[in-house]
Design a protein that fits this description.
about 375 residues; elongated; Helix Hairpins; 4-stranded mixed sheet; 3-stranded mixed sheet; alpha+beta; 15 strands; HSP40/DNAj peptide-binding domain
Length: about 375
Amino acid sequence: MATDYYELLGVDRGASADDLKRAYRKLAREYHPDANPDDQDAEAKFKEISEAYAVLSDDDARARYDQFGHDGLRGGGMGGDPFNFDLNDIFENFFGGNPFGGGRARGPSGPPPGEDQEIVLDLSFEEAIFGIDRKVELQTAVGCEDCSGSGAAEGTSPRRCTECEGAGQVRQVRQSLLGQMVTTAHCPRCGGLGEEIPTPCRQCRGEGRHRELMSYEVRVPAGVDTGSTLRLTGRGAVGPRGGTHGDLYVHLRVATSDKFNRDGDTLYAELHVTMLQAALGARINFETLDETVELAIPPGTQPGEIFRLRDHGVPRLEGRGRGRGELILSVTVEIPSKLSKDDEEQLRAIAQQRGENVADPGDRTVLGKIRSAFQ
């Protein structure tokens, strides 16, 4: 027994044309083969609901179906095959085109846009922190000056494609369970442009473009890092035969620094002080990325202590707030590996006064042998 078309679409027998459209829209999206790849049950269901909508959306076919059922759709009663329909017509009526691809040709699609291009720009650590204007060079497609991008030789012009008659697409008819199914595809002769070039330009061979070394100015904002990408709109390749430009994506690669480490907006560095400066205190000049800062080291400063310098880190990019991050300095106390005889005597005197146990001068050889054994 054939399935009732109204039940298939989930509507009652008095459903309006708008009700049918809404019901079919929902089911078509759910069961379309492109949304259910390799699902034969979904494909069969899609064909059934498409058949139901094809009949019920036609006033004459619906009237015969309501009166005679499926028998009214066969034989001479319909005056033809009720299933010889273009499925794309259904989508065109209320989707504005097939939402899953294909669809009726609306005319030539026009020249395709040019390709997006990518390039890597290497920056020094300081250039990334403070920003810089740099030039980049790349081989890209540019419009042919001889033919002004048309692809046609001087004194000639493109003509309407003889295969698709300027439509840019061709219709293909195939048999299916629903009858004849009509699909559309780009015209193989003109590539969907609707035009062909009888006399190609000698310079670009009908392409309307050729490759050339181009130079562009790139404004690198302050605060970028490795992995940042800048987009230069319209600086990619030009499309064939008058197509629009693609975009240029500049991927940034930042060199490391011997002095600073970076974590987002924060910079880290070591602050080297001698053991006497750490013990007695001192004033030390430290070279930041952009200026010299005098630091007051308090007496008794221990290794690993932290000094924070606000607004001496990385400038914050737009969207991350204003100003700059911090520069965090970690104290490293430098111990001399060799002492003069006078320095050693003075330090020993201090150790004696403080009652600290230190090695005797005669123990150096033994200590050296112990140290060598662990190296």
